[in-house]
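pasting for the record
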Amino acid sequence: MNNNKPHGGDSATPISLIVTGEEEPTWRPPAAVLSVTGDDSGHTDVICGNTSHLGMFIEMSPCLRIVGTIVSPPLVLRDAGLLAAHGRGVLLARRHLSTSSCLTGKMPPLRKTREKVEIPGLEMITYGERMHYVPGLAKPVFPKWEREEKDPFHYTSPPHQEMPLYKEKPCYVFHQRTSILEGLVQALWLTKTKLTTGLPAHILSPAVGLASQIPDQDERVQNAIRHARFWDTTEERPKKDVYGKTLLLNLLHLCGTLQTSHPSLSRRMFAESYSLSTTWTRGENMFQIRGLNGLLHTSMDPLPQVSDKQKVLETADEMLETFYPVSPTIDLQEVHLYKEVNCTGFSAECPYPHAHTLYFLEDSDPGCKLKPEQFRAKMMMFAFGNALARAYTLYGPTQSVLDQPITVQAIGSNGRIFQFLIFQLNTTDLTGDDGVKNQVWLDEDVELYDFAKVRPYIKKKEVRVPAGLKGYKPETFNKFLALYLNGVV
């Protein structure tokens, strides 16, 4: 390694540093690296600049190990900026061999905050009376200026402890973006519910009969899928939140064509972007469901109960599944500012007070994407919230076993896979684990079709997935239609 020093401290003569593959380079102050060049002979030249303008370099042998045979000319050092005003430099940016050092952002050193010392009995002399800065005098501290009128753009909220809604006991809130860790198991414990896999047979059987079938049902459902995946967009691969909503609306419109044969369907209404709020106590903690949920199908008539009174009483012998040592309040928002409100989102004079079915889209919120397990837990929690809020409206806030259970349905989809859920609220006494439990029936991950491709999927000159709609499953739409006609047929 050969070092050539410039003649004179302020000379602009560059320094040429030869680096070979057998030994490590040792940088000599004082210069700033401007470029690195190499040749075919296995040598690398590091050209340094003016020392009077760029400060001092520290030794960079452990940071820069260049083998001459692998360096391709020209090569530029980006972060050669070990710059400081005094002494050896301070590393303010990472080194890159892509651009010059002038393009690297360098942060100034952090300023140390001066500690204010207050001595009792001594008053600092400030320049407040002189109305201008005076060197040597302390900075005055003026009282906070408050506006005479209220300005919403300059409002400062008081501390939480001084707000009228502040309470010492925390409340754990479940909202539309909550993703609970344990998923459905945690939701079952929070709502004191027994899970049954699959939908009841007496609810699915009416949709299979010919009287409830839509004319050319399979062909029209497949056309609804093609409209959502192919005909409604010009993109080769549309997003799930786009075609998922289109498919859901197409299926609901297709089910609505049965209104001529089932006039009771006219006693329903769709509601969207309504706010729900309900509160209950589980163990020693207080929980609350509030916020916006999916599309709601409301009705003038309540849904019939799924289980009879005898099966409801048998749930008292069931044991709830626990997830110890995980806390049941994990991933729930803990708040101290809350109000115990039970509201269905509709006024008392609403002609459609009974919640029939909630429709959820898995990718409806781009800022919050839930996994399938957490998505099913969200469906169950909001179905429980609508049923509990309705129970408080009908029977009051007293905790007891309901004489007439309240049933709410929920359907979730991502545009291809559907989740079907039926929740029956049997009791509002949710404090302990003993006694009558609520019930839920869940049929999860039901596929409506296998593939819907705009272009075929080809791998190794072989068509793996053909273009178009493949693998349509009519039994999935029969379940969708059965929940839609529940309470009518």
